[in-house]
Amino acid sequence: MNGQAERPDTEAEAETSGAEPEAAEADGEDPGAALAEAEAKAADNWERYVRAAAETENVRKRAARDVENAHRFALERFGKELLAVKDGLEMALAASENASVESLLEGSEATLKLLGSTMERFGIEQVDPEGESFDPEWHEAISVQPSDKVEPGTVLTVVQKGYSLNGRLLRPAMVIVAAE
């Protein structure tokens, strides 16, 4: 018009009119390239997430399978050890026709000793509380009997021994306790 460039009417118009393209151009970036880069980064992150989720699921399934196998085969070693006891009993029965009472007794004692040592190796301990104080957590009183030989509340007789597995009661000892 009069040779001067038109000026925007307000400063706000000056800031918005063409400021964005100039800023993008000043950075040397194309908005389309920046968007493509962001999309590529998002796709890469998504792929990482999917792989991590799959790996987590595989670890969970593997752990569940390992726990299941541990439950199913936990007694495998114990079972193999008991086979020796069973074999000893079968040999004793097979030899019983021609064996003397003494040899049968010796075989039975040896088999019982083998069973006891196998149980000990696996943490099964005998609870034999004769002469000890009655403990209802470890003993089951089936009867009380007066006694002047021991103090009241003491185990007089063990009718059936109890057993524990690594400190946890499997079966309480069945006992007769001195009456109070």
Features:
elongated; 3-stranded antiparallel β-sheet; Nucleotide Exchange Factor Grpe, Chain A, domain 2; 6 strands; alpha+beta; 180 residues; 3-stranded mixed β-sheet
Question: What this model shows, in words?
Answer:
This protein is an alpha+beta fold. A three-stranded antiparallel sheet has the order 1-4-5. Strands 2-6-3 form a three-stranded mixed sheet, with no helix packed on it. The radius of gyration is 42 Å and the shape is elongated. 55% of the residues lie in helices and 17% in strands. Residues 11-26 have low confidence and may be disordered. The longest helix is centred in the first third of the chain and has 43 residues, at 31-73.
Overall radius of gyration: 42 Å
Q: How would a crystallographer describe the biggest sheet?
A: 3 strands, antiparallel
Helical fraction:
55-70%
Beta-strand percent range: 15-25%
In the sheet with the most strands, the strands line up as 1-4-5
Distance between the termini: 125 Å
Number of helices: 5
- Backbone shape: elongated
The unreliable regions are 11-26
In N-to-C order, the SSE pattern is HHHHHEEEEEE
Mean pLDDT: 85
Q: Could you tell me the number of beta strands?
A: 6
Structural class: alpha+beta
